[in-house]
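We were asked to recover a plausible sequence for a given structure. The inputs and outputs are reproduced exactly as logged, with field labels preserved.

PROBLEM: sequence recovery
POSITIONS: 209
GIVEN STRUCTURE:
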């Protein structure tokens, strides 16, 4: 039986691709890198902005890269480029909560922005963790603190790195195709289930046990 269900945030519960793309374009400009296309940025397999910039040759410290990214994300929000919570998120979270599942968010999205963007969904979660740059270690900690077996836990994410982190922690995983990585990319991972929307979670037998 699944007792704990974790969610990535960006691309899983919230569509923030537009502000993230705008922020990354400003970041690339800051580091004097050529612009990157929308598709190329979001098909990158790096798990966070630090890895993405380092892969492009940026030698700034991780702390400076993150600080610059956060500065440019604020610019995107000031320019009215906002993330949008997926329309079926609330209903799906309510279903899982009412089924007695312990719910949490684990995301690399900066904590400052995550806390602001959760809005009314916050009431469904026991933990909301942002600014995470090692999801594998964070998932292991959550499992240990909850005193459950890894196979009693599910992690849901829209990227290759999400699925790998969950599987490496011994959890079951659900890949969702609403976000950053395409279905074709996600099908190369070792997921347990793959869905095209949050509303499909209610149809999975694993949550009916």
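RECOVERED SEQUENCE:
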């Amino acid at each position: 039986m699944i007792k704990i269900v974790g969610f990535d945030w960006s691309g899983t519960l919230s569509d923030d691709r537009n502000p993230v793309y705008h922020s990354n374009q400003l970041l690339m400009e800051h580091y004097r890198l050529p612009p990157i296309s929308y598709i190329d940025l979001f098909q990158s397999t790096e798990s966070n902005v630090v890895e993405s910039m380092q892969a492009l040759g940026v030698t700034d410290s991780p702390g400076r890269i993150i600080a610059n990214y956060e500065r440019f994300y604020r610019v995107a929000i000031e320019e009215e480029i906002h993330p949008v919570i997926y329309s079926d998120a609330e209903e799906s979270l309510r279903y899982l909560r009412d089924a007695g599942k312990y719910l949490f968010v684990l995301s690399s999205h900066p904590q400052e922005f995550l806390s602001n963007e959760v809005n009314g969904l916050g009431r469904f979660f026991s933990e909301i963790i942002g600014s995470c740059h090692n999801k594998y270690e964070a998932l292991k900690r959550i499992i240990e603190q909850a005193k459950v077996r890894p196979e009693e836990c599910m992690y849901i994410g829209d990227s290759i790195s999400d699925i790998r982190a969950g599987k490496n922690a011994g959890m079951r995983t659900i890949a969702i195709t609403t976000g950053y990585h395409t279905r074709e990319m996600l099908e190369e991972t070792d997921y347990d289930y793959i869905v095209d929307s949050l509303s499909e979670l209610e149809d999975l037998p694993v949550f009916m046990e």
